Amino acid sequence: MNADLKREREQASFDVLKITHMFDGGKAATDRRRYLERVIERDPTDIFSNDDNHYLHRTERHVRATAKHVRLVEICRKLGIGKECGGELCESDDFYFLLDAVADDLPTALHWVMFLPNIKTLCDDEQQAKWLPLCRDWKVIGCYAQTELGHGSNVRALETTATFVPESKGGKKGGSFVIHSPSMTAAKFWPGTLGRTANHAMVIARLIDGEGVDRGIHNFIVPLRSMEDHSLLPGVKTGDIGPKIGYNNMDNGFAYFDNVEIPRRNMAMRFAEVDENGKYSKKHVSAAASKVAYITMMQVRAMIVMGSSKALAMATTINIRYSAVRKQGYNEDGKTEVQVLDYKQQQHRIFPLLAASYCFFFSGRKLWDNLKKIEHKLISKKPVTKVQVADIHATSSALKSFNTMVAADGIEECRKACGGHGFLASSGLPELMCSYLQSPTVEGDNHMLPQQVVKVLLKLVQAVQSGEGVDAYTTCDSYSLVPSLKALFSGQREKCLAVNKTDMKDLPTLLLAFRHRAAMLLINVAKQLNDDVMNGKSMQEAWNYALVAMAKSSKAYSLFLLLRNFMEGIMEEQRSKLLGRAEVSVLGDLARMFALYWMEKDIGDFIHDGYLTAKQASWVAPNVLEFLDAIRPNAVALADARDLSDFRLKSALGRYDGNVYPHILEAAYKDPLNSVDPGPAYDPELKRLITGGVGVYSGTASRL
Amino acid sequence: MNADLKREREQASFDVLKITHMFDGGKAATDRRRYLERVIERDPTDIFSNDDNHYLHRTERHVRATAKHVRLVEICRKLGIGKECGGELCESDDFYFLLDAVADDLPTALHWVMFLPNIKTLCDDEQQAKWLPLCRDWKVIGCYAQTELGHGSNVRALETTATFVPESKGGKKGGSFVIHSPSMTAAKFWPGTLGRTANHAMVIARLIDGEGVDRGIHNFIVPLRSMEDHSLLPGVKTGDIGPKIGYNNMDNGFAYFDNVEIPRRNMAMRFAEVDENGKYSKKHVSAAASKVAYITMMQVRAMIVMGSSKALAMATTINIRYSAVRKQGYNEDGKTEVQVLDYKQQQHRIFPLLAASYCFFFSGRKLWDNLKKIEHKLISKKPVTKVQVADIHATSSALKSFNTMVAADGIEECRKACGGHGFLASSGLPELMCSYLQSPTVEGDNHMLPQQVVKVLLKLVQAVQSGEGVDAYTTCDSYSLVPSLKALFSGQREKCLAVNKTDMKDLPTLLLAFRHRAAMLLINVAKQLNDDVMNGKSMQEAWNYALVAMAKSSKAYSLFLLLRNFMEGIMEEQRSKLLGRAEVSVLGDLARMFALYWMEKDIGDFIHDGYLTAKQASWVAPNVLEFLDAIRPNAVALADARDLSDFRLKSALGRYDGNVYPHILEAAYKDPLNSVDPGPAYDPELKRLITGGVGVYSGTASRL
């Protein structure tokens, strides 16, 4: 092992394994994860090797990634994984451990991320009984086809139609739907797994019932390809949408439907149905059932929030290990070189991201748990209010938007902070980033979501202002804002109570500041909307002008929640005795660093209304520097604690053993450009130039 | 043409062509540029087509890009381009127009960007007479080999040695140097053009003279490959360093030297020499000559600053046109859809970047002109002081660091703000960004440069504080800071004089605020350093702790210079009568937007010391919104004015005609993944899975 890394590890003040167990949820889970990682790494077929990823053409990578999926199913069947779920892999925790262990994107992903959950939540029992076994046996591989070439987030504007045709007018027995793309921009465009892999799609289309009435958006299971030979079915045209900035294993696809007829019962009929005569009706399902469907879909967002923690963990692990190995500049002795990790500038770029990766873990876990709790309540018929559902929608929207922004920017910062070598594919960071870049855009664009957050929170503001209905929020995340909202409305000026620099490191003090800021910015949005409407703008216009302020407000709310959940999460771990004092202490440092760093970044928000005095504000930046010092000796250990294997990191720079340079070279030698010498451009091109065969200046200049 | 774009263009308040001429430097230059662009676009060989770029394997793209270079030389010779420079293409303006027109990265680039300028500035006359004709005729294709696998910015730590061997001890006639890589980390690593293309390298190595004395870093021309057949010369090992996040046409390379002997006179001997006996001596060259060399190297940085303007212009052009075409959400009528460009949030993301692309143009031009002026003074033996050289070093470092950061982040913001379609390679934005990402790292890492800026500026601070030597700065950029520095030292409190929201749109008022902020942050760095040393830290330690503050300070200085140059640039254009009132007015809007946007972003800096009151600060964000309104009707025209042809933009989203959707689809169809149906993964992989050939659960779960 590299001597610097060895020394770094020896100086850690805490037990790395305890933190690893915390992330996994206990020792047993760590052991199971590690076992499954070994299954993949040591698989004798070598299909799972990621060593050649960067040298393959996209087509080869896609084929290879498909092979990984097939092998994964084979392994599961051999090992009995998922057997406890009747062979439904997607219900088995082990399957997700294995997916993580593969450390590569599989073209089949949308099958379990969207297609299956859709069937489970939107289809009635009979439909589920038909489709789920087909899915389980991978006879049906599905995707989720919502967005169209011309329309993304604005679901109301989708063009694809599903028109009912009764048996009497040429439809199938029991009636049919005809799925049709009425224009070029109506092409389904973007769905993952659609392009080359899926043989079925859950298509979102406008339902035109037997009376010709447009009933809005509904879901339809549309067979795309034969389950016998994968040939396209009549009227269906699909393909891959072409190369992307990342995520290129995946065949995101397009699909045109030219009057494609499907059985009436391929409409997902849990919440609404069309009968054999084409009569449309909403089903009398309990409000709870539709809430369950909604909550289930929100879980995808929770997974993205948890993913933001993991992505940052990968990037910071790579950067921190490399920064410990890499030297630059001389120490005061003029001879030994400085570890890059010792530069305050480097620490200031990376440690707050390390802190964020820890912080996001606690909020991701809490969000996930809360969604599961609500789901469980609904299933066991306990009351869940609209307010509660809206509140968790706001929380998940705010966190999705903020966390993926921080993670995307953070991965890139980690990459840049590896200097030149971070530009190499073999650093692992380019692919990590480029594939991650989908996250800020999918499942609600990061710049759309703040509106939804604020829309929900403004109702709380109104409740506080009017004094009516605040009680409905007691179990909600947003209820934590109420004291500051009340103070602001009562004209009582909240002020930071720190009297010295040390006070300004106190977590409860910091949390109060973030609460005040979030409440203040939220009220400012309400005021701006109100003023603009008073001054003659329409509500839509006023809303438009407030979008910038809403983005700020949503971010401030996220930071408040994140810090609160970080603090609560640490306390929970402390109570559960999984962590000792040393671990709690270092997590506390990360939480303080996180809070102070973001306070420093947005300091204007904290001082412009006098919440912080200039004096108090002047303590923030020096405190950040102090926590850089505090975290420095534990930095490598805090990265190690995420227990990301070399196989998963796929990085010459981030290796556990620190043996960076030979692996950079090894990766270089492998490039196909080096397979012949002179290189492949010499004979056909360079040779003429160098040896003088590329023409000469003629006597007079001529024009082509 | 798309109807929305047509309407956008009709509503512009100014003459687009006048602004185009401003960017080009006059009508004649625009015409020439357009003519040369047509030469490339209409070249009958089709070599220059960029249509297949995204579908080619890296090796194919590299070969193709090499072919482009060869064809370019051929075209130049046919058209007589560069004939006026004796065939030295790299001295011909037309050659650079053509390079821009090609709109693709050429593997030969380091030949003219670094190798040739090195020969011209560091070699003596006799050496130049030998090498320049070989370069001109492309018999020699060179690269610049400085960075090593283990060492980048810290030039002092380079390991490669060049050891003198006299004829008497087996050296060549007149003596030799032996170039050697003493360790694995000594491998030259990163130099562009080195991997597969170059047959010579300008190698930076430690000179060990005839007495065995290490004379530090010097430059040596090292033949790598035979000029006859491109075979590697004895002892040389080179290759490509493998795939990168971008810039993959280029064969960035590595090189090991195993005791490679070169003639003594291959050392660049303008400033120092080693004679036949191995005696080392500095040459008595005028101080001016070494300054010229330094200034020449700084021009690369000026080119990067200008490049930041162009890169942002490309990204904002693509985004603005697409945002005008793309619709999302409904207008108040509930039927017609809203142009994405009408959302304030979208404007707030993009218009400041549009303003930055304009702003950076003026500073890039000024920096370039100033460097040329100094160079000219030096050549014509007029006095140039050390202070002046240091000052322009600070300016170029500050601007390089800040501008490339804004451009890199800005391109990505433009990409994200295209929503899903920005993720497509066919949007043009992924490649634009990924190739641009080299800029923040090369030629002085953006996070290293602020130290150098502050080091220079601290001398001015000292001069102002002591009252001695300030006059030496009168012709310097940094002299503009003096009034605020003086005020701060005299304890006189500068304050913003705006009495209402309108005052806060006044450019001189805004500039004063940016000046105050820059001076204040600079003095804070000085104070922090001073305090830390007083409190017992070593200077190196104190310096380390101040790095974060230096980064802020350098950024603040950049913003001050950028705004000042923007204002002066507009006034110059106004005086020269190239622009009319309408054009000046819209440029003024951009300048105000630029200033207010950055003030809003960093508002804490402006209020924490009371320069702005809370009241004054509260006018900033609403003013930004007002300028979004002001710029909105001219947005498309301001993008058009950069006159970036579709051929150069390479973007389905950014097309001049707005015909976005058919071109997205066309690009999708072309992906090789679509060349067969079912796709290439079906037969080898998916088939087994779907038709049931991937094993079954055995009776008891077994372990692999």
TrEMBL record, chains A, B:
Domain Acyl-CoA oxidase C-terminal: 507-689
Ranges where the Acyl-coenzyme A oxidase N-terminal domain occurs: 15-141
Domain Acyl-CoA oxidase C-alpha1, chain residue ranges per copy: 294-458
Gene Ontology, cellular component aspect: peroxisome
Residues of the signal peptide: none
Record-annotated active site: E443 (proton acceptor)
Chief location: other
Alphabetical list of Gene3D superfamilies matching this protein: Acyl-CoA dehydrogenase/oxidase, N-terminal domain (1.10.540.10), Butyryl-CoA Dehydrogenase, subunit A, domain 2 (2.40.110.10), Butyryl-CoA Dehydrogenase, subunit A, domain 3 (1.20.140.10)
Alphabetized UniProt keyword annotations: FAD, Fatty acid metabolism, Flavoprotein, Lipid metabolism, Oxidoreductase, Peroxisome
Cellular localisation: Peroxisome
Catalytic activity from the UniProt record: a 2,3-saturated acyl-CoA + O2 = a (2E)-enoyl-CoA + H2O2
GO BP of this protein: fatty acid beta-oxidation using acyl-CoA oxidase; lipid homeostasis
Cofactors (names): FAD
Taxonomy, superkingdom: Eukaryota
Molecular function GO labels: acyl-CoA oxidase activity; FAD binding; fatty acid binding
Transmembrane segments: none
InterPro entries: ACOX_C_alpha1 (IPR055060), Acyl-CoA_ox_N (IPR029320), Acyl-CoA_Oxase/DH_mid-dom (IPR006091), Acyl-CoA_Oxase/DH_mid-dom_sf (IPR046373), Acyl-CoA_oxidase (IPR012258), Acyl-CoA_oxidase_C (IPR002655), AcylCo_DH-like_C (IPR036250), AcylCoA_DH/ox_N_sf (IPR037069)
Family according to the record: Belongs to the acyl-CoA oxidase family.
PANTHER family for this protein: ELECTRON TRANSPORT OXIDOREDUCTASE, PEROXISOMAL ACYL-COENZYME A OXIDASE 1
Protein name (Swiss-Prot/TrEMBL): Acyl-coenzyme A oxidase
Lineage: Eukaryota, Sar, Stramenopiles, Ochrophyta, Bacillariophyta
